[in-house]
TrEMBL record:
Coiled coil: none annotated. This is Aminoglycoside phosphotransferase. It comes from the Bacteria. Pfam families: APH. InterPro entries: AGP_Transferase (IPR051678), Aminoglycoside_PTrfase (IPR002575), Kinase-like_dom_sf (IPR011009). Residues 40-214 form the Aminoglycoside phosphotransferase domain. PANTHER family: AMINOGLYCOSIDE PHOSPHOTRANSFERASE DOMAIN-CONTAINING PROTEIN-RELATED (PTHR21310:SF40), AMINOGLYCOSIDE PHOSPHOTRANSFERASE-RELATED-RELATED (PTHR21310).
Length: 249
């Protein structure tokens, strides 16, 4: 039998993901991440990968068929119908019973935002006015919310579609009770033109102003982690571009 090739999907100081044939091996330095992922996938009323086995620190899951809904920094080739189907899928998740473990509260978000803005300013990552303006826009997200079951890192590359059907949602380690608008914002970060399609499937009660505020907030708080772990938030269409674009709002 021929040996399967091993593909390194992602690797940094916190975790690594390898693909061997049709199985992904996720190796995480914090076993709590995989534990949350396993529990969240068992509870979520949406398509999720099949768990092959779990022996900390390794979680083995089956590949999901289909293709990514999109990827930050690249135009999404998925159809409007696929985005609408994604909105309906996210709504099912948000309407589900809450997971029993705690999520981040408003005070946690405010502290993180203030700390990350201070770091961005101290390291001259962006002009002061860009950071100041985005911190101002982010205020609209800093309000009490009714917790729902959120994925917590619902990037379009974590949603797989086949034609107009959602076939799977991956990477559940950040799942928790949280703000529904955060999930919708992460999905459309850098894909603003897809927001109407997403919300057509999600339903009428989404707050567009709060989603736009989360675009700024997410980009502000994620940039340092990306830089320190070898990613480039300054690539075209990515987080720093999103922050610059908010100056036109």
């Amino acid at each position: 039998m021929d040996a399967e090739e091993v593909e390194v999907v992602v690797a940094h100081s916190q975790r690594a993901t390898l693909r061997v044939g049709d199985v992904f091996l996720k190796v995480d330095g914090d076993p709590a991440h995989a534990a949350v992922e396993v529990r969240a996938m068992s509870m979520a009323p949406v398509p999720t990968p099949t768990i092959r086995w779990h022996e900390p620190p390794v979680l083995a899951i089956a590949a999901v068929h289909g293709r990514e809904l999109g990827r930050l920094g690249e135009p999404s080739s998925a159809s409007p119908e696929a985005w609408r189907a994604t909105g309906a899928t996210v709504r099912r998740l948000h309407d589900a019973p809450l997971p029993p473990w705690p999520g981040r509260g408003l005070d946690d978000v405010v502290r993180e935002l203030d700390a990350e803005c201070t770091w961005l300013l101290a390291h001259d990552v962006l002009p002061t006015e860009v950071i100041r303006r985005n911190r101002e826009i982010a205020e609209a997200a800093l309000r009490p919310w009714r917790p729902v079951f959120v994925h917590g890192d619902l990037q379009p590359c974590h949603v797989f579609v086949d034609g107009d059907e959602v076939t799977g949602v991956i990477d559940w380690s950040e799942a928790a009770p949280g703000d529904a608008m955060f999930d919708l914002a992460v999905l459309t970060l850098g894909h603003e033109e897809r927001l109407d399609d997403l919300l057509a499937g999600y339903g009428p009660d989404a707050d567009r102003d709060v989603i736009r505020a989360w675009w700024s907030l997410r980009s502000l708080v994620a940039s340092r982690w990306l830089i320190e772990h070898g990613f480039d938030p300054g690539a075209p269409g990515c987080e720093l571009d999103v922050l610059r674009s908010r100056m036109r709002d």
